[in-house]
Write the structure tokens for this entry.
Amino acid sequence: MSPRSARLARLSRSVTFSACHRLHSKSLSDEENLKLFGKCNNPNGHGHNYKGRKLISILAPGIDPVSGMVMNLTDLKEYMQEAIMEPLDHKNLDKDVPYFSEVVSTTENVAVFIWDSLQKLLPQGVLYKVQVHETEQNVVVYKGEETIVK
């Protein structure tokens, strides 16, 4: 390998945050919401310990030859604190996070929120994916896709 070539590597970091929410769409009637979301439409909400086993994955331009790192983990930890933990941990997503006042607080939309929040902090082009585990069985992976062409 020549001195100018670099090896690509992915770096992942995980966090766990607790939050409550109610699945409820303002576009639907109460009856339609109950039919669509079932017990998750409970007027008093319900909670989760959201886990990111690989909550975010960074794909850097290469392993820095001087530091030997894809990204400084201390910096990544601070970005995740600001983008994820501060706005989401121990919050009622629907009442405490302005983003969810107009967006249904599904795990899919939580992943999009985290992606958008991290994009504002991380160097451009390094965020590869956000993976959110709502439960052991329910996992959402988001890679920044905005539209699906049909």
Observations:
- The chain has four helices and seven strands.
- The longest strand covers residues 127-133.
